[in-house]
Amino acid sequence: xxxxxxxxxxxxxxxxxxxxxxxxxxxxxxxxxxxxxxxxxxxxxxxxxxxxxxxxxxxxxxxxxxxxxxxxxxxxxxxxxxxxxxxxxxxxxxxxxxxxxxxxxxxxxxxxxxxxxxxxxxxxxxxxxxxxxxx
Length: 135
Ligand SMILES: [Zn+2]
What we know:
This protein has 135 residues and is mostly helical. The chain has two domains: 3-104, DksA, coiled-coil domain (Four Helix Bundle (Hemerythrin (Met), subunit A), Up-down Bundle), CATH 1.20.120; 105-135. The protein is built from five helices and no strands. It has helices at 3-33, 42-78, 93-98, 106-116, 119-134. The chain starts with a helix and ends with a helix. Zinc ion binds next to helix 4.
């Protein structure tokens, strides 16, 4: 199959994944909002808090993926989908099929991960989360 056809197929994959994510995110949101304020058991309250914490974390992951998918669809429309942002070579279809919103080929992705786990970068992340906690 030509790369172009394969990429058009991936567009469908992205759209389907996008729909599923939106439906699931709406579900999470309504769970977060529909929680009645119970005056009952303390344990119930704790369970509720934990559940809503889990839901909001899930929601965050979903919204991040949703954003990645939106950007991938944008790149599809602009015609630069599937080009690595690191080395500008075409990202292999096997990788795109596994991660349809990948922006980098696996080599560039690994390089980026390595940079992220560099001690200086890790220190930066710790600092950022500390700031977020105290904000
Ligand atoms: Zn690359």
